[in-house]
Amino acid sequence: MADTSFNNMTSLARALSQPKLDLIEPNDVFTTRAAQVYPCRRRKLSSCNSVESLETLTPPAAEARVLVINTGGTIGMTLHDNVLAPKANAFVQSLRKLPILHDETYAQQTCLYNYYGSENTLVLPKPTSHCDHLSHGMSKNNKRIVYTILEYSPLLDSSNMTTDDWGRIGKDIEKNYENYDGFVILHGTDTMAYTASALSFMCEHLGKPIILTGAQVPIYEMRNDGRGNLLGALLIAGQFVIPEVCLYFYNKLYRGNRVTKVDAGSFNAFSSPNLAPLATAEVDVTINWDTVWRANTTAKFQVSTELNRNVGLLRLFPGITAATVRAFLQPPMEGVVLETYGSGNAPDNRPDLLEELKKATDSGVIIINCTQCLRGTVSTSYATGKVLIDAGLIAGGDMTPEAALSKLSYVLAKKELDLEAKKKLMSQNLRGEMSADLAGAKLCLSDSRFIQVIAKSLSISCKEELEAIRDALTPPLACAAAKIGDIEALEALKDMGSNLCLGDYDGRTPLHIAACEGHLKLVQYLLSHGATVYAKDRYGDTPLCNAVRFRHKEVVKLLRKTGAHFSRDKLEEAGTELCSLAASGDLEGLEIWSLAGADLNRPGYDGQTAIEVAQAVGKKETVAFLVQLMSKNPKKVFGEFNTCDEYDDDDDESGVIEFTATPSRA
Ligand SMILES: NC(=O)C[C@H](N)C(=O)O
């Protein structure tokens, strides 16, 4: 029977710190202790027999979870008949034997395999030195990185990849989105730039990192780049909320739709010619937050797997015949990336060629002008460039051909759009794949009166020092503005070039604060300007946890609509909280937990559900309320590789104001 004296958070917390011993083996000291540290793993601990020291146990709030999707590529290949080919069902076993990629002791101590129900879940080791801290299994805030490997069958050399494979990856991410903090895609290097570009468009309203990586030499070889690449990708995916599809290779994190493979024989195989890396993993991991692209949306993450295959790449060369161009542009071709010379030029003394191009664009084929040069952008500085505009081509800016092609494939598949709308999308920057024209747009730091005043008072004049001060001061200032609901102050900070997603000394972001205070408009503003619902403070709390705690219903609804969700552990622990609320007849509390995605059928620590507790203590009104809530919003249970529940969002949302999202980054 439920202990119905749990009518406030304090007594509940105290009760939880004294776990019911009948649930676990009484003589197994380890299990008792592990159950205290891991209440959510309690039910499965009885079959775990580890007797190792317990001092190293890390609370689960300090674990980050990453899903690794292994599609193939050299990283997991072995030699057969003197050629490299993927080897199935060998990768996880090999990683398990590599101490830099797996800590078996920790896995045993924390019953990792039992908990996840499979041996495909591994955990990065604990750091042993300062450098390790920043570059191995724990981040600065001491998070262990637990990763689960989903291996595809068959494993592919990336030369064999098709758009269907992109769709499969996208769907698997979508299905598992709420169960993980980040995603790593193991992929062959040959077509990795195409897959990264395609995923960047297919993943709409992305809020978590998706990092592609692979290797030039298999991890099984003595000298290889696979181990370092995988480790770096895992660390970044688990530690940082970089809401982009990225590519990690040779100590650099790139925006996925900016890269191209430039070297078949070097570990340094990729280049991002028109955009500096998002991060570098040297002695320290340095994130270039100013460059990180954000969805700036309140819409929920989704993957669009509809792709148009009638697209192609055509490279101009001196002497190309009109017949070749005509043949290439025949139906069913719907979109073409024309790789032109220099800054987007083509012969202006070849009316036969230009006529073929014009005929195709007139008949509805979208042709994008991209340069053959590795670096630089198309422009209209030459007569030989202007003729292509006259022929109806769309300027592709500094997009890579890989990005332009996959963007075409994505945009052309949008059945609800007419030709003009598709052309418009093609010329716009959708995911940071092309540089905006920044002339006059970027505010100079010294334009900011605020920074000038501070600089003066500190006698500082050099730009780097000013930037350092700005970066140090603005997170707490933004939090202070969020506390009092001051959107204007936030706007001013943003105009100074401040990143409104950064946290204060406790990792609390302006969105955390606004969620605590219930400032709905400010929450809306922050979400429209790059704030992430997945930010965790030092206690592991997200803005959603804060909004629930302070019972701001409308904020909870908006955060849920944007994709916020409780962690798997929190959902498992919700049962006990719901029982406590039911015992005290706290209808408001029950409703807000339900809105936040808690499963009302989840049992509490003693196996009873909220409704059973309410019945036991004779709270009829609470029982009726729970029945009504459950019928309105039935929930599914979380499981490994299961889709999470959807929030039923048919409630009135009046009061929510849409702010226009202006992508703030290049
Ligand atoms: N390094 C590699 O991964 C090359 C391999 N052929 C692939 O793309 O799958």
TrEMBL record:
UniProt GO BP: aspartate family amino acid metabolic process
Q: Where are the ANK repeats?
A: 506-538
Entry annotated with the keyword Transmembrane helix: no
The protein's GO terms of the molecular function aspect are: asparaginase activity
Q: Where is the active site?
A: 189
- Tell me which InterPro entries the record gives: Ankyrin_rpt, Ankyrin_rpt-contain_sf, AsnA_fam, Asp/glu_Ase-like_sf, Asparaginase/glutaminase-like, Asparaginase/glutaminase_AS2, Asparaginase_C, L-asparaginase_C
Instruction: Using the record's annotation, list all stretches that form the L-asparaginase N-terminal domain.
Output: 65-291
Check the record and name the PROSITE patterns matching this protein: ANK_REP_REGION, ANK_REPEAT, ASN_GLN_ASE_2, ASN_GLN_ASE_3
Coiled coil residues, start to end:
none
The Asparaginase/glutaminase C-terminal domain extends over 310-426
What the entry lists under Gene3D superfamilies is as follows:
3.40.50.40, Ankyrin repeat-containing domain, L-asparaginase, N-terminal domain
Broadest EC class assigned to this enzyme: hydrolase
Entry keyword set: ANK repeat, Hydrolase, Repeat
Give the E.C. number(s): 3.5.1.1
Keyword flag Repeat = yes
Query: According to its UniProt record, which protein family does this protein belong to?
Result: In the N-terminal section; belongs to the asparaginase 1 family.
For this entry, the protein name equals: asparaginase
Tell me the organism.
Answer: Lates calcarifer (Barramundi)
